């Protein structure tokens, strides 16, 4: 029962760990519903970052002195924490980047250099975030390759039956968003991977909107690559992750050259460092990594299963409430969807809606949500998006519904 | 016609009575209905101001040494804000518009809308209105 999960989860206690939530904006208690854009940080994450700058900072690797050795240890421990969080086989398969966008750009470059030839094909879905479209489009431009698209229906369900006809002997990679940042749809990644396996096609999973909502096991999924951002999973900004199977990462050429990613350098020839350092040129965001580790520990301690169940209850509650509101169109109603609700009030511009909700203390996002093909699918210029997290409550959903009523009163 | 200064002070006086944001927005919604609406033939991509999350169309004509603006938007609050800008800047000489210090924006609490990233692109609107004035000034300014 949804109600049980709502009651069993001590959201009040959780909220105490996120001091930012306890404030007023525009003289109203803050209702933070912009978690799809970025999540707030528990004190443990903020304290770790602060402690680093105050007491622990030193550049990692290469240093012989105490602080450098400690920072290096923390950094490699953070890699191990990420490994364990997504259950990768070994920590060499975890590459730190600056975020999911950077991860996808690295992959598009390195995978493209090695495995994409003229005429080859890459498949994405119609519901991708721009970050999982544009790097592949750029690659296709460089290599004269072709981008193909799996469409979705008006409920936000991926039309997986179209996948077999999109696959050809030229298909090299399928890169797919796990959870849509607009529709909330959780795509059947496992099914896509199973299909890809039969054709020897690599699969990259954009987990930027899923890794914070449900447990992920990359070995069980058997995906070849998986990417996510630190700041959307309650960690610091400027840190992100690529998981890649070792057999792939070993074959891929580095993306950026510089310090730390090399073995030997001379003006005749440079040899590259081993995994994972081959892909981590220059000083990495080791403080971000330490913060990310704290965030993932926080999630593991809270229990991602518990978080998932609670958030699913929030979703059910919200969808039921939204159905009762006349003239409210919610985009995406596939069962099991994440707590992401994009909507338009009939006859009211999303910007007007967002501006009024803001003055009520409700933080939502308006616009195209970096997914213009999704807007085109529904023939709209933009949507309002309320994206929730496990520190949000049913009371806050009720308040959003009041906000929507207020908007209707003002504009209709 | 009242001085640019004076019109801005009138607007500030109108807004000062509202201590609640909803009242301010309601007033902007009212004002949106008074905007000199752009001729439908100018509601094309050529007249759209880039940098706004809502669509904003702006046209300016030159009439008896004055710049006359007309505009429209698909978002109502944005339209209300434009109506204020038009009220302050329209039917003035290019030079007056170019030199205008729009202090009323800050005074009525719309300053946050001036940041470059703010979705409704008030900054882009002001810039475009001034660009029209600069263009007309270059064309007719010495006559």
Task: Write a compact overview of the structure shown.
By secondary structure, chain A is α/β, with parallel strands linked by helices. Chain A has helices at residues 2-8, 11-16, 43-56, 66-86, 100-115, 134-143, 163-166, 189-198, 218-221, 246-251, 286-302, 304-323, 350-359, 372-378, 394-411, and strands spanning 24-25, 28-29, 31-32, 94-97, 121-125, 146-150, 171-177, 202-206, 225-229, 240-244, 262-265, 270-272, 328-331, 340-345, 362-363, 365-367, 383-387.
Secondary-structure blueprint:
The complex is a heterodimer of chains A (412) and B (143).
Chain A: H1 2-8, H2 11-16, E1 24-25, E2 28-29, E3 31-32, H3 43-56, H4 66-86, E4 94-97, H5 100-115, E5 121-125, H6 134-143, E6 146-150, H7 163-166, E7 171-177, H8 189-198, E8 202-206, H9 218-221, E9 225-229, E10 240-244, H10 246-251, E11 262-265, E12 270-272, H11 286-302, H12 304-323, E13 328-331, E14 340-345, H13 350-359, E15 362-363, E16 365-367, H14 372-378, E17 383-387, H15 394-411
Parallel strand pairs in A: 3-15, 5-6, 5-7, 7-8, 8-9
Antiparallel strand pairs in A: 1-2, 4-10, 9-10, 11-12, 13-14, 14-17, 16-17
Chain B: H1 4-16, H2 21-32, E1 56-63, E2 66-73, H3 76-89, H4 94-99, H5 103-107, H6 122-140
Antiparallel strand pairs in B: 1-2
Helix pairs in contact in B: 1-3, 2-3, 3-6
